[in-house]
Amino acid sequence: MAKSAINRRSAYHTQQLALFERNSTDEPALDLLQPLFRIRQNGYYGFINARGDVVIEPQFLAAEDFYNGFSRVLLNDHWVLMDKLGRLLLRRLFSYVGFFSEGLAPVKLVRRWGYLDTSGQLRIEPKFEEAASFQEGLAPARLGGRWGYLKTDGTWGIPPQFLAAGAFGNGLAPVQLDTDWAYIDAEGQVVMVLPFDECYPFQRDVAPIRKDRQWGLVHRFSDVLVEPQFDIPEQEPFGEFVEGLAPALLDGQYGYINEMGQLVIPPRYDLAGDFSEGLAPVQLKQSFGFTDKNGDIAVDFHFTNAGIFSEGLAPVKVDAQWGFIHTAGDMVIPPCYDAVLPFRDTLAWTEKKGQWAYIDRNGQTVWSE
Length: 369
Prior knowledge:
Layout: H1 2-18, E1 37-41, E2 44-48, E3 54-60, E4 71-75, E5 78-82, E6 96-97, E7 104-109, E8 112-117, E9 122-128, E10 130-131, E11 139-143, E12 146-150, E13 156-162, E14 164-165, E15 173-176, E16 181-184, E17 190-194, E18 198-199, E19 206-211, E20 214-219, E21 223-231, E22 245-250, E23 253-258, E24 263-269, E25 271-272, E26 279-284, E27 287-292, E28 297-303, E29 305-306, E30 313-318, E31 321-326, E32 331-337, E33 339-340, E34 348-352, E35 355-359, E36 365-368
Antiparallel strand pairs: 1-2, 2-3, 4-5, 6-7, 7-8, 8-9, 10-11, 11-12, 12-13, 14-15, 15-16, 16-17, 18-19, 19-20, 20-21, 22-23, 23-24, 25-26, 26-27, 27-28, 29-30, 30-31, 31-32, 33-34, 34-35, 35-36
């Protein structure tokens, strides 16, 4: 049995080494920067490249997509980080492993949090009660019941003193003082104190603020830009700007505001998605179409559901099946799938009768379960 296992592993490594060899185009067959796509085979998960070649054999009971060069895979009931060569960061098993940001990932060992670097070494020892990801060189962490901000060397950039703390964005971070919410700079100095129930991280020059079940905007140079007045949807994100616009719910209807807080598309839709490639999916009564940034209908309301445009194509649902249209609204991949995801790096994930497949922009199958 031991010899059989060794032979299987040897065969696998031989296959992996073959991926480094040059192909007919005299280019390396394995590019460490290439996108990888999660696949499922016989109940196990692995990864292919955009050509459909299996790069990491299906061998894990669960796996997540790659982010910042690493995936998380399930091993012995623990989530473990894995790089694009299939190498696992296994020096220790943690009860929780986050994704890498700025070269460090938050990890939980028993009840304490620390940070792992991309070589699998514990860069910051687990000693914190909670910890979040690094942004702009600082990460929120809690010790002694109070939040502060860590530097990447594990020392405090801003000592623990806050009841709550959010991520830095454009040089500012939201924190909860003893009675109010405020924004601080990278030195820990309070820049503005605001009378709201919660403040959120900045996206460029604006950040959402919440009062009860309504939200508004604050500007980093002019304090309150829009008083809380937009309704917060149930179990949906709010105040997230994409391509300069964010969906806004007012009196049961959706419109869009810009980063100056102006309602540039009046509330008239029953549902509204994010903008992507200049268009956004919107619902009117029981049908979906697409609006442009001027509020004009770019693709008429012909669909029972719709997703965002990506790489020039958007998933749309006709009756019970999904296909893809291009920006003019023409169907380029007929609706024949039970579920799909938007295109990413030239491929789209699909599911039909419980089976996974990846298709290219022509609708040709690159890999199937």
